[in-house]
Amino acid sequence: MNLTTTYLGLKLKSPLMPGASPLTENLDSIRQLEDAGAGAIVMSSLFAEQIERSEAAFARHVSRWNENFAEATTIFPQQDDYSVAPAEYLDRIAHIKAATKLPVIASLNGSHPGNWVSHARLIADAGADALELNTYFLATLRSVSGPEIEERVIEIARAVRGAVKIPVTVKLSPFYSSVAHLVGRLEDEGIDGVVLFNRFFQPEIDVDTLEVNPKLDLSTREDLRLRLRWLGLLRDQVKLSLGCSGGVHASTDVVRALLAGADGVQVVSSLLGHGAAQLGGLLTGLKHWMEQNEYSSVDQMRGALSVRNCPDAEAYERGNYLRTLQLWRP
Ligand SMILES: Cc1cc2nc3c(=O)[nH]c(=O)nc-3n(C[C@H](O)[C@H](O)[C@H](O)COP(=O)(O)O)c2cc1C
């Protein structure tokens, strides 16, 4: 049985990988995930805010020296030469590469094109095999239009694409008026993949303290369906790699994501809840399903139920909305 997949141009031994999260913050858990059969790992994100704060802190530091000792600035590197990427992140890439055979997908998180984009190059130089860009920006003002938000994603993707040669994928939110159009534009920009989708924390109102707090819950299996819809709809429209992120908790969820059209399947909540060994269980279940259903490879499964291949294509679209409502029973 052939579980290999090509994801972002990388040949992976399996389509399953831990998504960006604290799961990939220490070598022990990364080794466990490798032993359990992960095809790659996605590192937790390096945030633009972290980088920009470091730059600001560095600038403050130098100017303090400047004011006090005019000649002393020569002992500092020029700000342009100074590696302001939080050094630990770059070190971590190198450590993971040295300690495992896993392809490492680093993650950069920013909401506007900025200085931090140049850090994509440092990440590539540190040995990352690919880069996932998380472009989370929530438009909250009536003055900000949909096209402006999409343009921002494209600008970030273009800038990063121009900065590195390694494969680049963009982790999207589902909150775009035309997901397919945006993904098509990313493909036109030379982006190698998209990850569907990011999951955000939502604010919660505490009725006792009358405070509003951000709250991040782990996902449930219901989260997967939104991903399945877009995997299925996009599979036949674009050639770039499709990553699934959100709601994968059981091996049948992995099967679903692949049948809809995913090239890679990321898991976070389920592994945070059950530990790294859960990834092995998901893979065993996938193999079992493939045996039972006479699939010999992941390639054969991929997109077998995409919109073009499924018996009732309208299930992906609005078409049978009315029938679905009529069929509902309590
Ligand atoms: C504790 C936690 C930390 C996360 N950190 C990141 C991160 O640094 N960067 C990122 O792009 N996504 C991050 N995510 C989102 C996950 O990568 C993933 O997209 C989301 O949890 C949906 O997948 P799941 O249903 O398998 O959990 C995080 C999620 C959790 C629960």
Question: Would you write up a description of this structure?
Answer:
Helix 1 (27-36) runs parallel beside helix 10 (277-292), helix 7 runs parallel beside helix 8 and helix 8 crosses helix 10. The protein is built from twelve helices and twelve strands. The chain is α/β, with parallel strands linked by helices. The strands form three sheets. It has an eight-stranded parallel sheet. It has a two-stranded antiparallel sheet with strand order 1-2. It has a two-stranded antiparallel ribbon with strand order 9-10. It has one domain: TIM Barrel. 39% of the residues are buried. 41% of the residues lie in helices and 17% in strands. Flavin mononucleotide is lined by residues 19-22, 44-45, 107, 109, 134, 171, 198-199, 216, 218-219, 223, 245-248, 267-269.
Features:
two-stranded antiparallel sheet, binds flavin mononucleotide, 8-stranded parallel sheet, TIM Barrel, 330 residues, alpha/beta, 12 helices
Compact description:
This protein is α/β, with parallel strands linked by helices and 330 residues long. The chain has helices at residues 27-36, 48-68, 87-99, 119-125, 146-163, 179-188, 223-234, 251-260, 269-274, 277-292, 298-301, 321-327, and strands at 5-7, 10-12, 16-18, 41-47, 104-109, 130-134, 168-172, 193-196, 202-206, 211-215, 241-245, 264-267.
